């Protein structure tokens, strides 16, 4: 039989394969030897293996998930892989034992493992050699119906205990992200781990400097409060001073105000919710007077404050800007440069309107990321604050910088002129901006009209 697909260029075959789901790619590769060779040589198809335990509520569905994963693992040959389990392993899932065996038999080439489980059988995975495992995301989800008044190991456990042999089995592990997982007393150290993401319960009762001696990033979530030992021993002080990034919840900050080494970490991130103690501690740890502030989008939610004098960054995560008006009032008189999305301008302006004093008295540069057009600011003004958020007091403002995006690459000169006049006009009537910088955005119209302000 003539294989006419061999007459197709490899580039066209790749485009066709890219348009297919993984299951269809496997089916096609079984039909044509030429397509199979191309698929084998395309590592992106096999680098990530997904086991979808939610694919069906009946046995054929689980069987399909198992055979698809098995075929993908076979085609990936000896290449390093990442395994992601969608859903949760449960005792009643058909093929659960087969799926676990599939993972265990391939742990020697797994670089990333992301898995959630209700079954205590998952612990057997961590008894296998994992010489190249670098990232582990493990969530223990005990079934509430199995919780017993008397603890029976492996049945209804509230937490999953990692085997003590695991650090030796995974010598290259650098990131550990766990939920409802515990370590046994005297747990051996992770020699290469640099990032830990866990809840307070995981950290309690564990000497972090001994178990994670090379840690550089520590993220402790909510659902409890973590207390650093007081007073700190020299071992703890040395370990904390070597951390590069720490992310904590506000109540953990509030109960560790005497842990001075913590507030000297280069990057400290705090989730705030109207906790004045935590807010005051963060403000006090920022000692510089020429700060750089940036209001980041949702993916990096929070107010980022960089202090050039110390090289430290503080990230304050919050729900609404207005909730942290006291923090803003304490920080902004020391801010020289500020960056934000234009879509956040009105909310930012409302906060400034409610802040006492002159919060923008030191501001020299404003950078606006144009995730929307400038016109959006006045197209849908706030009904109550519309007339109160105009004309900031920025006596030292020199530079207005506009950064374009895919949503906005061109701005009319009239829009820029109106924005300066309406929101910065109170000061620019007394002196002009030194510079209008454009990055990825162009102006449409007569730029000479801007000379009265720039």
Automatic annotation (TrEMBL):
In this chain the F-box domain maps to 2-49
- InterPro entries listed in its UniProt record: F-box-like_dom_sf, F-box_dom
Domain of life the protein comes from: Eukaryota
> Which SUPFAM superfamilies does this entry report, sorted A to Z?
F-box domain, L domain-like
Q: Which CDD domains match?
A: F-box_SF
Q: What is this protein called?
A: F-box domain-containing protein
Q: Which PROSITE patterns match?
A: FBOX
- Source species: Exidia glandulosa HHB12029
